[in-house]
Amino acid sequence: MRDTIAAISSPLGEGGIGIVRMSGPEAHAILKRLFRPRKRTKAFASRRLYLGFFFDPQSTMDVDEVFATFMDAPYTYTREKMAEVYCHGGLSSQREILSLLMTNGARMAEPGEFTRRAFLNGRIDLAQAESVLDIIESESAEELQSALALSKGHLSDCIKGLSAEIEGLAAEVEASIDFPEEGLDIEDREWPGRIGKIRDALSTLIASFYEGRAIKQGLKALIVGRTNVGKSSLLNALSLRDRAIVTPLPGTTRDLLEETIHVKGIKFRIIDTAGLGSPRDPIEREAQERVILRIPEADVILWVLDASAPYNAEDEAVHEAIRGRRGLAILNKTDLPYRIDCGTVASKGFGAMSVSALTGAGLEELKAELFRLYAEHGGRSKGPLVTNVRHRDALLRTEEALARAEQCMEIGEPVELAAFEVRGALSCLGEITGATCTEDLLDRIFSRFCIGK
Questions:
Q1: Confidence (pTM)
Q2: For the chain (length 453 residues), average pLDDT per consecutive 10?
Q3: CA 177, 183, 187, 192: dihedral to nearest 10 degrees?
Q4: Where would a tag sit more exposed on the chain, N or C end, judged by fewer CB atoms within 10 A?
Q5: What proportions of the chain, in percent to the nearest 5, are helix, strand and coil?
Q6: How far apart are CA 86 and CA 428, in angstroms?
């Protein structure tokens, strides 16, 4: 934290503008040695842009015409002194500027070190720090809004409120141990009931992970069916690109092919699979076994049938493999005369959709039905969303610890055991905001960041 760090913060390559930033106690002093403003000034004001030249003090040669800004602590991203240089977006210009900054006292920043300093200096908590990466990696408007809500502290505020309730409970339980003469017994304080309410709130947050995962990671929609029903054609039509090879020959698709589409801000990962049926060779058998293994992992099954052919035994075998799963029966090839018995399909427990992957008919209705399935399962909740697996796991461990504490109280176990579990729950919950975390955890989180953020 005593070092002054520097990094290129804009994507490497050619562009209109490149950004090189510094943070640390010597940030201003280093930049002043290397920047010559066009208009001479006695002192640089904080958070103001100055036009001038970045130069090499040894050769006195100019490197680039730039804007420079000096930012005083604590009103910066890291709560330290910061300085930034906005140069032309050429790779050589950015590298030369960074090299001169490092020659004059800065060191190369580690991945995520700027955001890590913001966390360590108390400007943001750990959940908000993770939201920075979510914002950068957002692929849709809905994903961006979810990440922004996390950065604004919506989840953090909820976690802090629950932590305060658990902290108060822990204090009372421990007081009953330290001061038994005060008569703070379990029945009088209604501790199990209070734990139950906290667990209910935790369960609501945990349940929101389905929607959060749908927004951030995407729902898996697995295309299944017998050979030659148009599964690969459907993938190409939904993704608007020739992702899969399509031929009249059966068994063209051997491996799993995946494309992402966005429907009303929700990401669906459409996965094409090999046709199910009687395998003709070991490769086709392996391909079909992989499909069977992926069926339980899918959020939605798209069961494709050939509407121009009668429902047959191979279709029924596919139905047996996906029985009880949530999804849709897709009657494909509706540009040809119908020969399938729609009543038979309707009796299988899957809502039926008629489409033509060749002409595009029915595809928009299919997308709307996919979104309806998502909304029916969870919908868009108004409260904070859990989008991070780490957060979900911490909430689960918190809930489990409180469940053990509640059980200890109900069966009359020593109060010390209940106090231990309550404190454990508080520690697990604190991992989300960073109130309790290890150096290893921080290393894992910030190593995922790019250098310069």
A1: 0.78
A2: 92 89 97 95 94 94 96 96 96 95 96 96 95 89 88 94 93 79 57 90 90 82 90 89 64 74 85 82 82 89 93 91 90 92 86 91 92 72 83 96 91 86 94 92 90 86
A3: -30
A4: N
A5: 45, 20, 35
A6: 42
